[in-house]
Fold this protein.
Amino acid sequence: GTGEANASVLRVEPDRKVSNDCQPRGGDSTTLAEKPTWIRRTADQGSGAEALHAAKSGINAAVAAGPLYGRLFRATELSLLSYSATAAEFGPTLRAFLDGEIGILKRKDDVDHPTAVFNVLFGAYLAARSGDVELAGTAITAVRSEVHDSGYPNLTNMLAIAQTERARATDRPQDAIAAF
């Protein structure tokens, strides 16, 4: 009835607002779900500052759309920050991201659990690449057993990448090679 139609409009309007809030400058029709791809493409084309600005400005709108989008935008932001931020800015931001993702790991039945495992591994990779091998080790340890039991090949591959980067960062090239 009319109540259902009004409820539908109420659900669509915030989604439309969030999507509109995440539009890149210049009238591009990129939606919230497509924006991380737009950000990566912009960074790949040499506009890292513009991509980082878009990622940072999209976080609030992404969080409003749902926690998964917010976490996706934070991971995108971290990826870009890893190239441009100082250790003083990057370290605490990465640590906060990993703390949140590790917290989600405790909710085994959460639909976003596999995403949290991937994000922890991605964070481990970023930590190792930035020289924080202790944080990388903590993150890898937090998910290692879950990766092996997950049945997701991408998680197994990401674990190998994180372990390899940690080995490289600790000057253990043979361990890096052995991970693959």
The chain has nine helices and no strands. Confidence is low (pLDDT under 50) at residues 1-29.
